[in-house]
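tool=predict chain=A
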Amino acid sequence: MSELILDSIREFVKRHVEPLAVKIDKEDWYPRELVRKMGEMGFLAPMSEGLSLLDTALILKEIAKVSGSVALIQDAQGELVTEPLRVYGGDKYTVEMLSKGELIGGFALSEPQGGSDVASINTRAEKVNGKWMINGKKMWTTQGLYADVYLVAAKTGENGLKSITTFLVRKGECVKVNKIEVMGNRGTGTAEVEFNNCEADNIVGEVNKGWEVVKYALLVGRVAISAIALGLAEGALEEALEWAKSRELFGTKLVEKQGIQWYLAESVAQITSLNTLLKSVAKTEDVFKDEGKIAVLKYLSTRIATDIVDKAVQIMGGMGYAKGTKCERAYRDVRLGRIGEGTDEVQLGIIFKMVNKEGLQYFTE
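tool=predict ok
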């Protein structure tokens, strides 16, 4: 990423995101106009604007330093909906409207009875009078409350992953949404979405080949959520460091205590390593080929970022536990990283599968 773009996103975050971060979290408020502004600047769906996956990750990291909620909105809109539509043949007008923030999109995959087990989804698509009709219920759909369109994974047969097709469904009377209260990443419109005889606008990809579309979205999304976790950790650590420099304890600054210095030094070492790993993995030209390395990135970044945020809260003590601080907000936001877009356990399964198939050299070369 050029320094010009990096400076631009930092200035954007400072001017437009930071002033709204507390309001978004406190009021569970969806920042619709901010989404449009991000689209106007080319930050909402960067890969649709010609930027790389690495550029996208760095943009997300800068946003997440200030607001995990806004970063998650960008991820849902840009990487989970707009990007697979762009790659797998979605309507160009819809892709453009999504990338500009004129339409809001929701990635409708997880269901009440299963999230990680995609083959077990119950949502079905059947042809009625030559038109595809969608019926089923989805869970944990970020932006689901506010979406104009949904990228929906549905069964079109009985052959597991080989019978999944992805469709674009527009919101209408056939769509029912129910808000889901979550502990973190507030203001993102997380919802249960029910489709009742909804006509699909078009197939994304090919019939019975929707798993490829879903997997692509998840792989790109795992890089994105890793960057979000890292941004949350950096933002929390910066706040904790400033607090430690200003806080007096037993006649000395808190930062002068060796235990606190070790917390800070260990966190900096971890962040440095994660940044190197993120930049290495996000340079991939084929996310399918590098699935195992993406799994390593997501597993390590989300777990270590959670630990760093926990240490930042510990450094700030009661203040870190208080509402209104970055640390407290990040503490709630960062936990999603170990669940969303593939749990820790799913990532470990992928890592072992690649070791078993390709050998250790796959990860070490």
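The two ends are 25 Å apart (CA to CA). The chain has a mean pLDDT of 95.
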